[in-house]
Amino acid sequence: MFYHDNELQYEVEVEEPDPTFARALQQAIGGVEGEMRVANQYLFQAFAVPSDQQAYKELLLDTAAEELGHIEMLATAVKKNLRDTSVSLGDISSDDATGLASIAGMQPRQYLSGGMNPTATDANGFPFSGNYVVASGNIAADMVANVMAESTGRLLATRLYEMTDDPGMKDMLAYLVARDTMHQNQWLELLTELGDSEEPFDVLPIPDSFPDAEENEEFNYAFLSTNVEPTEDPEQPWTTGASPDGEGEFSYVRQLDLDGAPPDVGHAEAETYNDPTPRDEG
């Protein structure tokens, strides 16, 4: 069950409206790095958590609800940045460089589809896609995906921060950067708790419940070099020494030194009509 509060989670102020920045902010709403992605990701991950792991479910739901609040903050920022924006070239003189740049830089769908309001799209007007959402049912895999999502989200927020000189926008984005810092750390903490707390990589490889005996152990810790030039083991941390999960030793193997196998793929069934030969000549 969700409840709505009429106040924003954090103050959103815009001193100098900028329709070009309003377009950029759309990426943080409906883009692959955006808040719609993480809000839905955490919701669907929470729906899969078993009842005896209620603390994990509450953590995911709390953060999902917070991300919904971030969407509201960003939508408010978009709307304020579109304030008093002209949408007609007839209203702008030919020597008004700022006005012309304003129309050229805005996202047309914010006007055409939204009536000068935010939309559920990225900065290019592409609709949000549920394909961005990762909810695998394996909480360890999901936490790794969440760290990545918060990392790219924080990266986007820092780039947006550099794009604007508006004090209010910088303040809002500094807050969002800070929340992404927390979220990265809380997902890492949960990931660590899933295994031995003294071994941060104890849950690796994911899923660690697959029987070791069923895995091809000749290649499970082998770095395969696909370089066509003859090269020796560079003795990097990922080609020699113990693996982070503590279950194997890295090795270095050149793919060209291994025996390959022919694909040996036959023809499809006649009912597919893949054969280009005319029937009367077959």
UniProtKB/TrEMBL annotation:
Entry-linked CDD domains: Mn_catalase
Pfam families: Mn_catalase
Region (Disordered): 228-282
Domain of life: Archaea
Entry's family note: Belongs to the manganese catalase family.
Protein known as: Mn-containing catalase
